[in-house]
Automatic annotation (TrEMBL):
<dbReference type="Pfam" id="PF00106">
    <property type="entry name" value="adh_short"/>
</dbReference>
<dbReference type="InterPro" id="IPR036291">
    <property type="entry name" value="NAD(P)-bd_dom_sf"/>
</dbReference>
<comment type="similarity">
    <text>Belongs to the short-chain dehydrogenases/reductases (SDR) family.</text>
</comment>
<dbReference type="GO" id="GO:0016491">
    <property type="term" value="F:oxidoreductase activity"/>
</dbReference>
<keyword id="KW-0560">Oxidoreductase</keyword>
<protein>
    <submittedName>
        <fullName>NADP-dependent 3-hydroxy acid dehydrogenase YdfG</fullName>
    </submittedName>
</protein>
<dbReference type="InterPro" id="IPR002347">
    <property type="entry name" value="SDR_fam"/>
</dbReference>
Amino acid sequence: MTDLTDKVAIVTGASRGIGKAIALLLAMQGAKVVAVARTAEELEELTLKTQGLAIPADVADEADAEFIVAETLSRFGRLDILVCNAGVGSFNLLENFEAAEWDRIFDVNVKGTFLLCKAMVPHLKAQGHGHIVGIASDVSKRTFEHGTVYGASKYAQDALLGSLRKEVRPYGVKVSTIYPGMVDTYFNESKPGSTEAEKTHLKPSDVAQAVRYVLEAPAHVVVDELMLHPLTQEW
């Protein structure tokens, strides 16, 4: 299994929920975690636990994305892992969406993934190794009522990561995509455990374990897709 000790991992959307669970687990496995989110206060609390680096930033801003990579290299001198976890969602009938809401969802879910990958990929290709993990959604593979905008963003993110996988594989860089079902977290302004239904959902720690699984897979193993099922909690 691949050893994560002293590997440098950037995790976006790390202040709470899935991102926080991923950051904590990678730190427990010995990685140096660069936690990225827009909320500085929650990031500071996290980095006290991980002894890593906190960078308050907007992943949809190109200057911020470039700063995240530059600051990581300045602090640790290397880059190994990028976990594109930051995501937002809203659900409604198509005709009830405002164009601004479309922009917000695509900015975080798609543009954010694009900008971080764009800033990081040249370094990974030059060093001949590295791993990008995208936290997509099971709606990357299906459609549902009220999911027009969010689903479209996740289909786009999935296509971006799938194409990137083929581009960087010859350079020794891996790209993995994880497709969680319903997760008991803060997504879409909900609170963990706030309803009986949410108590049957996946936990953020389940997704974190999936990330650990793909990161620790031997170099000769390619895991193209990892789907987490919300009811059975198996993958």
